[in-house]
Specification:
Blueprint lengths: L1 H19 L2 H23 L6 H24 L1 H5 L7
Helix pairs in contact: 1-2, 2-3
Keywords: Membrane, Transmembrane, Transmembrane helix
Protein name: DUF2512 family protein
Organism: Paenibacillus phytorum
């Protein structure tokens, strides 16, 4: 399940938002997406006994991890600009 979230975050946030915005905006988008993702999984797929606050904490932890990932990728802009069809 976390792998699905990381892949969605990479495609939706890192490839779109991070290229045209700042690290803070991309991190807030990641936190929002993580919150919605875990809330929907809790609500519709699994009958987890976690509440709103627990989902928010998990989303914030995910956001902290993503903040440092964005900082790492922004240090070397070449890594962020590469894609699988690159000649490099």
């Amino acid at each position: 399940m976390p792998l699905i979230l990381f892949l969605m975050s990479y495609v939706a946030i890192d490839q779109l938002f991070l290229r045209v915005s700042s690290n803070v905006i991309a991190t807030v988008a990641d936190v929002g997406m993580a919150f919605v993702f875990f809330w929907l999984v809790k609500k519709f797929f699994f009958d987890w006994s976690i509440n709103f606050m627990n989902v928010a904490i998990v989303a914030l932890v995910f956001g902290i991890i993503e903040f440092f990932m964005h900082s790492y990728f922004q240090k070397d802009r070449g890594r962020l600009d590469r894609h699988s069809f690159s000649d490099n």
